[in-house]
Amino acid sequence: MSERTTPVTADFWFDPMCPWAWMTSRWMLEVEKVRPVKVRWNVMSLSVLNENREELPEKYRTLMAEGWGPVRVAVAVDQAHGQEALARYYTAIGTRIHPGGEKDFTAAITGALADAELPAELAAAADSEEYDEALRASHSAGIDLVGQDVGTPVIAVPGADGERIAFFGPVVTPAPRGEAAARLWDGTLLVAATPGFYELKRTRTQGPVFD
């Protein structure tokens, strides 16, 4: 394990309804334990990303319409209570939606706020446009770093020259633990910092494994 020094900040953009972002976020929490890294949580939105795409299947279009609620509440939590509360909310709602299999986002939001010991009235943000400007700004901050043809998660870290390096993913299941998490982090930074490197991919043969 690397010797602990002042942690490097890794900005992590997520949408609570994405199972792959959830898997990557659990890995990042493990990385915090084994590398000098501190995660800073940011909200992005698949609903924003897909709002002008006419070719979406009807089922996915419905999901995108429902997806505004969890991210709006995430922004409200961050603004009212800060990073630590946002991390608690994400863990709580992600646990309900993904390992828990909760399909009703309204119920997931209400339950997650209670689980995270946050005020119940924050749930009202789900049906309000009050936080949309901040949501879009947070979303754009991540997408502008990594490019338009990706989804969630997005991670950004300082490169060797101080300029931020952003990448989509990694997409992994189950979330690696311990030294395996550290090795994946080291390798991810290595390829992300390689000039001209854009993509490394293979077909997914397994869905998210929630453990």
UniProtKB/TrEMBL annotation:
<dbReference type="Pfam" id="PF22234">
    <property type="entry name" value="Rv2466c-like"/>
</dbReference>
<protein>
    <submittedName>
        <fullName>DsbA family protein</fullName>
    </submittedName>
</protein>
<dbReference type="InterPro" id="IPR053977">
    <property type="entry name" value="Rv2466c-like"/>
</dbReference>
<dbReference type="InterPro" id="IPR036249">
    <property type="entry name" value="Thioredoxin-like_sf"/>
</dbReference>
